[in-house]
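Bug #2210: token dump truncated for Ribosome maturation factor RimP?
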Amino acid sequence: MAGRSTGLPTQKQVIELLDGEFVRAGYEIDDVVIDSRPRPPRITVIADGDKPLDLDTVAALSRSASALLDDLIAGDDAYVLEVTSPGVDRPLTAEKHFRRAHARLVDAELADGTTVTARLGIVSDDAVDLVVRERNDWTVRRIPLADIVKAVVQVEFSPPKPRELELAGAAGTEAEA
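Reproduced locally. Full output below:
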């Protein structure tokens, strides 16, 4: 993308401009939100990857994104740039979302109308293992992703049990509870 423009770029322009930089860092741009109402306007870049965004990575991506955007946006046009992750309230809609949320607790609504709170296990062959508590024991249920109407990661305030993590295929990744 060559030359400076006047005003704010479009969502498409921002994605095209920043995509290569984010991919090199191991992340993909999930969304770009441009809000021109506040002064200065805000450009929010929502990125996700197989490893969670940490503060150092956010800072590095913010610096490189800002430098690229500064070259695109006319010098006198101020803006606020925010690089962030999707957050836990984003519904899991694609296989990569389920894979990235491995070993996290989710509330899922299934196509048959039932709901389940479960720990996400291994994702493969368009299905996911859900570790659920049934009759005072942990059980693994293999559910096709197409049968999950909605799934949202839950915030946890205590660590999961070792057996639950083991069944999710994540033994040793969390502190033993």
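Output looks complete on our side. The longest strand covers residues 115-124. Marking as cannot-reproduce; reopen if the truncation happens again.
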